[in-house]
Design brief:
This protein has 11 helices and no strands. It is mainly alpha-helical.
Length: about 210
């Protein structure tokens, strides 16, 4: 019985987060109401308030869920030491989630563009140490002569910009592709191109 209740909770939370991600991306934080999200999730508004007391709590949960996904993408920095393997895996994972979760990336971009008014305190505690660990790994590759000398944070920013472009500027990507979303083949070519440019820029062959 307990497991059944846990599963119901998990499904409801997942459904609410998916609906919230869609509405926040469509309307923006300020114009979104809990009623909008309840309608999109096809749940009573009381259900939303049962799991998330306020709109702020739900908004933070959406962004935290996305950040958790991006952290999973970066586990290759911990699991592998070969810079080619790490960066190839990381870029592919980031590109994949830019395609599968473009709305979440847009919400994140909007929050950061406005100075992270709701996330700022937690970013200092979560994002900064996480990024510093990735930079330290890149710095160790440079010091060991395994890649060309680069500024670690600049390399990370370049990867983030190139991969998240396909989410944040998805409309532009579609527009420049004769008004059609990228096919699986075209997207794979994009992944390989971004990977190749990044790797060759630091002295590695894809």
């Amino acid at each position: 019985m307990a497991n059944h209740k846990i599963e119901i909770r998990r499904r409801n939370v997942e459904k609410i987060l998916q609906a919230a991600e869609q509405v926040f991306a469509d309307k923006g934080y300020a114009a979104t109401s809990m009623g909008d999200i309840a309608e999109r999730a096809q749940l009573p508004r009381s259900n939303l308030h049962y799991y998330f007391s306020t709109k702020d709590d739900l908004y933070r949960a959406v962004l935290q869920d996305l950040l958790d996904v991006w952290k999973q993408d970066a586990l290759c920095f911990e699991h592998f030491d070969d810079p080619r393997v790490v960066l190839t895996s990381y870029i592919r994972a980031k590109m994949g989630h830019s395609r599968s979760r473009p709305l979440g990336s847009k919400i994140w971009a909007e929050e950061i563009l406005h100075g992270a008014p709701l996330l700022s305190p937690s970013l200092d505690e979560i994002l900064v140490p996480w990024a510093q660990l990735k930079q330290a790994k890149i710095r160790s590759w440079v010091e060991d002569g395994r890649i060309l000398p680069v500024e670690p944070s600049a390399l990370l920013y370049m990867i983030w910009a190139a991969t998240q472009h396909y989410a944040d500027f998805g409309f532009q990507v579609t527009l420049l592709n004769d008004g059609e979303p990228l096919s699986d083949m075209a997207f794979e070519q994009a992944v390989q191109t971004v990977t190749g440019v990044i790797l060759r820029g630091i002295g590695l062959e894809p």
